[in-house]
Amino acid sequence: MDSKLSETEAYLWKYISANINDIPNLSIIKLSELANVSTSTIVRTMKKKGYEGFTAFKHHLKDEQNTSINFSKVEKIDSEIKKSIIKNEQEVIRTLNMLNTGVIEDAIQKIKSSERVLIFARGFSELIGEEMKIKFQLANKYCELHTDPNIIKIMSQYLKKSDIAIFVSLNGETEELVNAAENCYKKEIGTILITTNTESPLTDLCELALIGYKSEVSFFPEYEVRSRLPLSVIARILLDSYVIRMDTKKGSN
After folding, report:
1. Which alpha helices (DSSP H) does the chain contain, by range?
2. C-alpha angle 176/228/186, rounded to 5°?
3. What are phi and psi of 217, to 5 degrees?
4. Tell me, what DSSP letter sits at residue 63?
5. pLDDT number for residue 227
6. In a domain, 53, yes or no
7. Are residue 46 and residue 116 in the same domain, yes or no?
8. Which of 74, 116, 184, 193 has the maximal Cβ count within 10 Å?
């Protein structure tokens, strides 16, 4: 495509490439002045490069910038703060890369065909369970959330095959959740797990497992308060996907 550029257009493209970080903030008039070319040359160059115009090219650059963290906007950023930001970025990106769309689709179908959704969660995972419960209810799906250890054990004994149980657990080792999953397994109750541990009792017991990435970095090493961000990401994708499928079904009727 570069062979189609005239000498002036090639010069302009070289100028843009050398000053790419400044381009999104420039008007076409300002770029014309800085590069010493006409606005017509800018428009022609953009079209030869596959863009509708200079504005479309700037939008493309801004979209690219928004996909990565720009630390240049934070003056004298503390190295530990930067470490925290990168930790969260890694948890999100790696979790997205680990997700299996086939498992998500199977989970949606399980939820869709069930009469009731029962969510079991403990500790900080309860916050994610609460968000899921509310969203299922807003989507007109019957849903309960159970967080009390004794109630979790009891409720799991009385589930029906028309129910689906969703376990939210970072490590997949919480005793009462494992006990509940064992009850579901014995009664052949459908189960979905949201976790970050591929080798846990819950992972072995649950029918479908949506697994995210947990960073080994913790800023509260003395306590078990690790980030539930990967679980939150998975839960939101599952809920969003469920609603999309339900809306698609309505639209086809």
Report:
1. 7-18, 28-35, 39-48, 54-65, 79-98, 101-113, 125-138, 149-155, 175-186, 201-205, 229-252
2. 30
3. -80, 130
4. H
5. 73
6. yes
7. no
8. 193
| Nearest alpha-carbon partner for 119 in 146, 142, 139, 138 | 146
- Give SS3 for 73: helix
Q: Which of 136, 120, 102 is nearest to 191 (CA)?
A: 120
pLDDT band at 2 (very low <50, low <70, confident <90, very high): very low
Establish if 77 belongs to a structural domain. Answer: no
Residue 233 tokens read as 């990401």
CA dihedral 165, 171, 172, 178 (to 10 degrees): -110
CA distance 97 to 91: 10
**Phi first, then psi: what are they for 185, rounded to 5°?**
-60, -45
In angstroms, the first-to-last Cα distance of the chain is 47
Question: 75 lies in a domain?
Answer: no
Write out pLDDT tens, residues 149-198: 999 999 999 999 999 999 999 999 999 999 999 999 999 999 999 999 98
173 three-state secondary structure:
coil
Identify the CA nearest to 169 among candidates 139, 117, 142, 205: 205
- For residue 55, the Cα-to-chain-centroid distance in whole angstroms is 29
Are 180 and 57 part of one and the same domain?
A: no
SS3 79: helix
- Cα(167)–Cα(172) distance, rounded to whole angstroms? 9
Of 65, 100, 120, the residue that ends a domain is 65
Q: Is the pLDDT of residue 67 over 80?
A: no
- pLDDT for the residue 216: 61
Q: Record the pTM.
A: 0.67
Are the C-beta atoms of residues 125 and 169 closer than 8 Å to each other? yes
Other CB atoms within a 10 A radius of the CB of residue 218 amount to 14
131 and 224 share one domain: yes
